[in-house]
Design brief:
about 160 residues; three-stranded antiparallel beta sheet; single chain; extended; mainly alpha
């Protein structure tokens, strides 16, 4: 059984001696050798964790909105076909601009997370409640608040402009 966090050490008692006694309100399982005791609280917590697990969503639900891709530098888009040689010019660009790509990527991802949190969007179908244009405009506005973002967009050849 997997139990997260600091509660784990409080909820599970490990005893190396099979003959030692358990604390009160703790159920134990005794096997030949070591003894592991799991408290009532730990079992309840594990049941809550199991109950709160989401089932796997259909693949379509993990999609990003179409407009989101337009804010990424072309060098980050994978467009390789089987048997095709590596685009060395693209690879050199990535190596030369590695820091800028990382900095810009953090800005884009942060703005997107902020939008998703604001509108409680956790899957693609959640967008149906909102205007894609309105969400993109808010994303653009949040992204534009980052100092130097326009310079990075230009340097990384991002086609979408703020």
């Amino acid at each position: 059984m997997y139990i997260q966090g600091a509660t784990y050490s409080q909820a599970v008692t490990f005893k190396s001696n099979a003959n030692s006694s358990c604390k009160e309100n703790v159920q134990s399982t005794n096997t030949a050798g070591d003894k592991v005791s799991i408290s009532k609280e730990a079992k309840e917590m594990a049941q809550k964790m199991d109950a709160s697990k989401q089932t796997d969503l259909p693949l379509e639900e993990y999609r990003l909105p179409e407009w989101y891709a337009e804010y990424w530098p072309p060098c980050t888009k994978l467009d390789v076909k089987i048997g095709q040689k590596t685009d060395m010019e693209k690879e050199m660009f990535i190596q030369r601009h590695n820091r800028e790509i990382a900095e810009y990527s953090d800005m884009v991802q942060s703005a997107y997370r902020e939008i998703c949190d604001k509108y409680n969007i956790s899957k693609y179908s959640d967008y149906a409640q909102y205007s894609h244009t309105k969400i993109e405009n808010e994303f653009r506005q949040i992204l534009s608040q980052n100092e130097g973002v326009e310079n990075l967009m230009e340097e990384l050849n991002v086609t979408k402009k703020l």
